[in-house]
Each structure stands twice: as C-alpha cells, then as structure tokens.
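Q: I have 483 residues here and want to know how they pack in 3D. Can you give me a structure?
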Amino acid sequence: MEYISTRGGTGAVDFEGALFSGYAPDGGLFMPQRIPSLDRDTLRRWSSLSYPDLVKELCSLFVPAELVPRNALSELIDKAFSRFRHKNVVHLSRLKDGLNILELWHGVTYAFKDLSLSCTGQFLQYFLEKRQKHVNILVGTSGDTGSSAIESVRGQKNLDIFVLLPKGLCTQIQELQMTTVIEDNVHVFAAHGNSDEIDEPIKELFADVDFAGKYNVMSLNSVNWSRIMVQIAHYFYAYFQCAPSLDTTQLPMVEIVVPTGGGGNITAGCIAQKMGLPIRLVTVVNSNDIIHRTVQHGDFSLAQSVKATLASAMDIQEPYNVERILWLLSGSDGRLIKTLMEQFNISKRLKLPEDLHRKLSETLGSCSASDQDIVGAMRRCWEENQYLLCPHSAVAAHYHYSQPHSIPRCCLAPASAAKFQDALLRAGLAPQIPPDISALTAMETRSTPLARGQDWAQVLRGRIEAVTQHWEAQAGHSAPQGR
C-alpha cells in the first residue's frame, strides 16, 4: 500500500512517509493509491468485533506488515486506547424516536479527536524509536485539537509538541486541558491574538523549508492521513451496531449523520463507503455552510466571513478535506483536482463540474443548522431522554428530528456536553461536570505568554532550536536528521 497526492504531482510514499508529512510537496493531500474492497463474508466476520479490533483490522489494510508487524500494530493500538474511560472505547446510546448517538468522546479530553490522535501518537513514536529520530510537532488550536494532540504525545521522549492557543478565546475547560499538562516535551504558548493571528507564525515556520527540514517540524491536524485512517472505524462500528441483520440476501443500509467542520471525519465515511460498507452518508454543518452548498448546488465558495456559532469547532470557512472527497469521486483524477483546487486557491470560488457535482450529491446528503436549531435539538433530547448533547452532536440530532427516516440511522457525537457549559446554559439546561474536569481548576498550570508586538515566530524558532539541541545532546547526535 502506497500513498499518492490528490494533485498527482508527487511520487508515491509509504505509510511512514505519509505519517510524517503534512501536505504533499505539490500542495495536495496524501491518499491510498488503492482503496481496498471488502466482500460480504469479511463484513459478516467483522460484525462481531470490538471497536479496537476493528481499528486493528482496518489499519492492517493500510499499513503493510513489513513496515509495522501485525503484533506490533496491535500493541500500539491497545496502548493508544488504554486511557479511554469506557470499556468499549466508543459507546452507542439508543434513545427515543430512533435517535442513535455514537459517543466518540470517551477519551482523555472528551473529544472524538482523542481516537485518531492517540493512535497517531503511537505510530509516530514507533518509527521515531526505530529510526532514532526526533520531531517537533507544531499545532495551532482554537479548542480541542491542541489538548487531544498534547495527550497523544505527552511524556514521549522522541518528540516535542508546541501548541499555540488564543488566550481567552477557547473555553476555560479547553484551555486548562492544555495548560495543566506539565511534561518536559509539552510547550504551550498563550497568544494574545485570535485564531487567524496564531496561524501566521505557524505558516511562517512551515514556509521556511530549510528550518522545517533541519528541525523536523511537522503538523498533527487532519491533513495527516493517519487520522483519517483511524476514523474509518467509526463507520464500520456504527453500521454493525445499528444494522438489523447481516443474514439477508442484500445487506441492509444504515444512514450515518456526521457533524462536519474540516471534513476529515466525513472523508473517512466516504472511504468506508468506497470499501463496500452499505451506508448512506449525511454531512451536517452549522451556519458556516460551504459543504452544504457544495453538496446541494456544486458551489464550493467561501462566504464573506466565518460566523461564530454554538458549535464552535465547526466554525470553519475552508474545509480542506473536501479535496480528498472530490479526488475519490473523480476516479483519482489528480490532474482535474489540481486544476480545480488551484482555481479555488486563487479566487476562493469554485463551481464543480456537473458530473463531479452529480457524484457528490449521490454520495452525500447534507443539512445546515442554525444556533436556534441547535438549542432546540439539545432541549428536545434532554426533555425526551434526560440526555445532554454537545452543540456539535445537536447539529446531527437536529437533522434526525427534522428528517423522517425509513432505515436505521446513527448520529456521530464528536464531543461531550461537559465541555460546552455556555451552550447548555443557553439552552436552559444544567451542565453535568465530571470530577476530572472540575479538578482542572485547582491544578498547576504552565504556559508561555506571547504578547502583541512580540515576534511570535522568532520565539518559537528559539524554543524549537533549544529543545532539539537538548535532545541531540542526550541522544549523542551531532546534527538534526531530516527524513
């Protein structure tokens, strides 16, 4: 199994190469050269597997055994999920009115990103120890990505993580989940600026190819193929939990509703579908509705500005993983995708070719929810089930409540309601705070302030250089080793 760029301008790389890369050198995103196809017998055999075992089976299709032996892969995945609070790692709650909620938030930070990032952190450490190499992970965050990334690599000796957060613009819980992690390899910077402003020094460091190469600087956002790969398991597990029986002549369909921001999770669903899983996919968004407009009208164009909503993690203007979906649906036509994405990058507007739009609308349904819709779904779910939804999960529940269904339906829940107390209060609901989240307020915190007017990129450069030199001295290396 090798990986190629969605834009067709880069040679194939193996899983290790894709893991340690962000964007491909031609600006595209890495995807498997071939999507494995699963037969009915395999699906029946997998139907009784636990969630961790499904992750192992799926990863073994995309990670060759000669690169990571099967027993090692199994151990890495077991270790990744060892800190999850639920014995099944993920859990399906069956509620009134056919509302099935797949809880993907039982990891350390109460967010679905813990699932893919915990595995990705283990894969990184496996190769770094094998190669005796060190990397510096650079992450900008406005919420959950920073804390999930930190938890996935905390205490690991072959990598350091540098996280920039916008001071005062995350929820208090999200900020404390980052600043209370006191580990030698965790470096948190509290910047006095917004999300766009913290992206600037990060872009500057990645654009400095010599610096990024010399100090092995990499990213852990959902550009990274490893995160998409692990998320494919959500769909198989949801299907097996909700399908009535797999003994029928034709396998039953299940509809899966996916709250969508950057598009990584829905991309994983499209891959699962392509592998032969009989699912109908619905992508649901908040008022930042570029994906909804693309599915409905072929209009992949930026709105004038990002709208702040209750489902804040989905307040995204430019869902970059749509490029992966379009590549899949185009029959892996790198030349077409390169032309389309270059046009979009110049004008920030794109009208999909008619054939590609038809395939997209056949593959995905879509829905957009306002803050009023979100609050309404949160209230109804509580009144009928005494079950609290986070505002992102409520976007999926809104679709369920507003659209009748004739086949089993599963709504993915990306975060725990406990992280979004303000949204619960807005809906007139009382937050239920787990003890480990309450305990954060009494814990020691550590972060480096970045003041306005300071050269943030230069501060980061200095810290990355110092950390790398310290690692080299301890490891007995004389110079950074680029891949």
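Q: Anything worth noting?
A: The mean pLDDT is 93. The chain has 20 helices and 13 strands.
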